Amino acid sequence: MYIVSACLAGVKCRYDGKDNTYEKVKALVEEGKAVIVCPEVFGDLPIPRKPCEIVKDKEGNERVLTKEGKDCTEAFQRGALKTLEIAKVLGAQEAILKAKSPSCGCGKIYNGEFNRTLIERDGLTARLLKENGIKVYTEEEFDSLS
User: Fold this and answer.
1) Tens digit of pLDDT for each residue in 105-133?
2) Which InterPro entries does the record cross-reference, listed alphabetically (predicted)?
3) Which phi and psi (to 5°) does residue 55 adopt?
């Protein structure tokens, strides 16, 4: 059983109210092989919402901020924890999450300067899942495996 980013399965839950439908992921859900999750919605963030990126302060602490500086860190953390709880209940050992997202991004996310530059780092949910032994793929990585 996989957990998958809801936006990849066609749910309009992205920050801009759109989806990122990825047919192979949508098919897994339709076949009953995957359960959808959206950490940002689980964290009680609205749809639509301001885009966020992970920003490191001078002390190296990470905060999830909008471009205008609103701190959404607690909502992102809450959503990551709820996603992990769901994965544990399901016994999910693998996740397919949306690339580049401050929640779901795996391997590369935006750099926190809102200039579309990618850096090597995981989003909060991807990191938490990995720390708990769950294998995390982006939709691109999953595509190359299947």
Assistant:
1) 999 999 999 999 999 999 999 999 999 99
2) 2-thiour_desulf (IPR007553)
3) -120, 135
> Residue 52's pLDDT is what?
98
Encode pLDDT of 29-83 as tens digits. Answer: 999 999 999 999 999 999 999 999 999 888 989 999 999 999 999 999 999 999 9
Q: Which residue has the tokens 């339709």?
A: 30
Structure tokens at 120: 């090597």
Helix (H) / strand (E) containing 141: helix 139-145
| Tokens encoding 108 | 């590369």
Neighbours of 47 (CB within 10 A): 15
Give me the residue label for tokens 């801009």. 16
Show the 3-state SS of 85-98: HHHHHHCCCEEEEC
Backbone phi and psi for residue 133, each to the nearest 5 degrees, phi listed first: 80, 15
Three-state secondary structure call for residue 33: coil
Query: Where along the chain do its domains lie?
Result: 2-145
User: Residue 30 burial (CB < 10 Å; 0-12/13-18/19+)?
Assistant: exposed
Supply the pLDDT for residue 146. 61
